[in-house]
Amino acid sequence: MRWALLCGCGSHLEALDEEELASEVLTHLGLEHPRMDQQQEAQVRERVAAHSYRYECVEAIYAGSAEPDEEFGLDPY
Q1: What is the pLDDT of residues 23-49, one digit of tens each?
Q2: Domains in the chain, number
């Protein structure tokens, strides 16, 4: 499972846990939004807790031997 947050500028920030995500957000604010870099770390952590989401990366979408074209392609007849 990974944690992610979408910034208002459209940047997708992600990390392995909420703690690391808060650090990523602070770094992003410092580099991309210097005016917002004034936010307190506690405010950033509250925002991460309220607006982040968890997701799971799936390595193999197609299990078995069927390729996507074979399984969902047009019928030849």
Answers
A1: 999 999 989 988 876 678 889 999 999
A2: 1
Residue 53 included in any domain = yes
> What tokens appear for 31 in the block?
């580099």
Residue 30 in any domain: the answer is: yes
Range of the domain at 56: 2-72
Inside any domain, residue 77: no
3 state SS for the chain: CEEEEECCCCCEEEECCHHHHHHHHHHHHHHHCCCHHHCCHHHHHHHHHHHCEEECCCCCCCCCCCCHHHHHCCCCC
One-letter amino acid of 67: E
